[in-house]
Amino acid sequence: MERMGNCTTIVYDCIPELDKPILIEGLPGVGNVGKIAADFLAEKLNAKRFATVYSDSFPPQVMLDSDCVIDMACNELYYVNDVNGKDIIFLLGEYQGTTPEGQYLICEDLMKDVFIRMDVSKMITLGGYGTGKMTDTPRVLGAVSDIDMKVDLQDHGVIFSPGEPAGGIVGASALLVGFGKIYGIPSVCLMGETSGYFVDHKSGIALLKVLESIIGIELDHAELDSKCQQIDELTAKVKEMEAEQQKTVDLGYIG
After folding, report:
1. What is the 3-state secondary structure (H, E, C) of 115-156?
2. Summary count for the chain: helices (H), strands (E)
3. pLDDT tens track for 193-222
4. Mind listing the domains of the chain with CATH numbers?
5. Spatial distance between the Cα atoms of 18 and 21, rounded to a whole number of angstroms
6. R_g of the chain, CA atoms, integer Å
7. CA-CA distance, 9 to 6, in Å (whole number)?
8. This prediction's pTM
């Protein structure tokens, strides 16, 4: 067990041997888009946990399993070796810090005491871009720490749209890219377009496909397809309701 800074405690299961790994972060956020993509990718690649991250900035609660054994609120670090010649670290979990200060400190501690020590060569953070509108074909938008990264990412389908998102990026996805710029690690935040109204598996798959292209692999998404169909059905219903509401508004101007 190692105590880092004033707020973060990390418990190692093992110290993996990694060669300039890529970090992929997928914590909860808008539509849980980044979490869906990262969790799915880590599971399909049979990633193994090597550490658990605790913080006094996580919610003060424990969760019970089927045997009533507790687990504290935490994040977890996983690794996988040699995915198309690349080692990968995943930062996964059910929580982010409950305060801006807490989020900053957690990311700073992880950056200095884990990612830099493990010689991370690139960081890819994942999130959702909430538009408040239903969309049939979610885009994947990007923000980078270094302008030289843009051309290659565009070849993988990432869209760079100045002014989107208008309010900037928040949370771990933003902070890690920011620290990447400070410490000279090429970093990108990939954001799947989503209404933000619900857990959006369709946007998660759009994000996943870009990740697969970047890594150079292809996965079977069959188990997510049925959930995407549910999203399509929900989108159609919402659009129908919006159309009916618009008709009502238009009729109000007659007479």
Report:
1. HCCCCCCEEEEEEEEECCCCCCCCCEEEEECCHHHHHHHHHC
2. 6, 11
3. 998 888 899 999 999 999 999 999 999 888
4. 2-223 (3.40.50.10900)
5. 6
6. 20
7. 9
8. 0.88
